[in-house]
Write a structure and sequence with these properties.
The structure holds 2 protein chains of 2 kinds. Chain A is mostly beta strands. Chain A has no helices and 11 strands. Chain A starts with a strand and ends with a strand. By secondary structure, chain B is mostly beta strands. Chains A and B meet through β5, β9 and β10 of A and β4, β5 and β10 of B.
């Protein structure tokens, strides 16, 4: 009913590499899409919202394909500081309100 | 600075005890949420509240209770009925849902790590 599936990972890449994460969601009524970043033993923090037209923020590019119910995140020129778990997030309508559904996350490890 | 605070950061509980986790926000957000995260797992929704004096069960509400007497506060009580309470608990808040559907981003507190001894 309300699933968000992500690449299992972990992704181990060298500095400077380009890496892409994929995500699929099952609820066709979802209208809000996000990528969150979670560092080890910390709370998730918003990385970027995802818009239908695609959007870019520096080295990060997010894309949404509503027809395929597919979201992607591309990280270019990876830095050591990019090492974290990336969570794909979509909204869902519940019985008495709206909430966000989180994927299990994809772990990225960038090495020098 | 506006934000969400949770306390305590670490909490140890003996089996059979009830404990209450605090969550306070000064962002003037209407909606608040409680999640549980287990190692290697995603966030699972425990309870949510769209407005003061109203709250709803999420996917894993059994063994938990909440209250929403004030807009800025949404405490979570982990009762003795919760069979496996050891986890990382995260509180979040957001503005009202967007008109026409959708939701603004959620802001998270730093979390409380609960361990049952």
């Amino acid at each position: 009913r309300k699933e968000v599936e992500q690449d299992p990972g972990p992704f181990n890449v060298p500095e400077g590499a380009t890496v892409a994460f994929n995500c699929t969601y099952s609820n066709s009524a979802s209208q809000s899409f996000f990528w969150y970043r979670q560092d080890c033993r910390k709370e998730p923090k918003l990385l970027m919202s995802v818009y239908s037209s695609g959007n870019e923020d520096g080295r990060f590019t997010a894309q949404l394909n509503r027809a395929s119910q597919y979201i992607s995140l591309l990280i270019r020129d990876s830095k050591l500081s990019d090492s974290a778990t990336y969570l794909c997030v979509v909204n869902i309508e519940l019985e008495a309100g709206t909430a966000l559904i989180f994927g299990k996350g994809t772990t990225l490890s960038v090495s020098s | 600075d506006g934000g969400i605070t949770q306390s305590p950061k670490y909490l140890f509980r003996k089996e059979g005890q009830n404990v209450t986790l605090s969550c306070e926000q000064n962002l003037n957000h209407d909606a608040m949420y409680w999640y549980r995260q287990d190692p290697g797992q995603g966030l699972r929704l425990i309870y949510y509240s769209q407005i003061v004096n109203d709250f709803q069960k999420g996917d894993i509400a059994e063994g938990y209770s909440v209250s929403r007497e004030k807009k800025e506060s949404f405490p979570l009580t982990v009762t003795s009925a919760q069979k496996n309470p050891t986890a990382f608990y995260l509180c979040a808040s957001t503005d009202r849902a967007l008109s026409g559907g959708g939701l603004n981003e959620q802001f998270f507190g730093p979390g409380t790590r609960l361990t049952v001894l």
